[in-house]
Amino acid sequence: MAQDADIKAKFLGTWSLVGVEREVADSGEKLDQGVVQTGFICYTSEPRMMVIIRRSRQGQPGQEITSYAGPWTIEGDAVIHHVEMATRESWVGTDQVRGFAFEEDRLILSPPVSPDYTHGSVTRRSLTWRKL
Questions:
Q1: Domains of the chain with bracketed CATH
Q2: Which of 11, 89, 90, 129 has CB 3.0 to 4.6 Å from 43, enough for a Cys bridge?
Q3: pLDDT at residue 72 above 90?
């Protein structure tokens, strides 16, 4: 039980997005060349979380915003975001499962390998966050 509390304590606070890796699962082809992604994720002790990510292409107009919020829990080696509100309406009421790892002042979140809503191919992703 104390170990769970120690892990939860590591999540607490605000994190800034410092890197996103996305690749086609079968081929390893890297996606998102030239895409700029910025964002923040915040975990509180209540336990509540919220995230906002902005994607844009350098030199091109327009951007995409992804955001959602809700309670969060830890189960084994996964953090689960229980979505109560989201910019993607289809996510409301879902659980967004993320594998996690801590490396120094970094948190790496990895969604399950799944079809990508942008490219349509099955992709592997990881998002690296730095503690503020």
A1: 2-131 (2.40.128.280)
A2: 11
A3: yes
Residue 14's pLDDT band (cuts 50, 70, 90)? very high
Per-residue tokens: 21: 């890796």
**64 and 56 in contact (C-beta within 8 Å)?**
yes
For 29-64, what is each residue's pLDDT tens digit? 787 766 788 999 999 999 999 999 998 877 777 788
Cβ-contact 50, 67 below 8 angstroms? yes
Q: Long-range contacts of range 61-70, CB-CB < 8 Å, 24 or more positions apart?
A: 68/96
For the entire predicted model, the pTM comes to 0.88
What is the DSSP annotation of the chain? -HHHHHHHHHH-EEEEEEEEEEEETTT--B--TTEEEEEEEEE-SSSEEEEEEEEEETTSS--EEEEEEEEEEEETTEEEEE-SEESSGGGTT-EEEEEEEEETTEEEEEPPSEE-TTT-SEEEEEEEEEE-
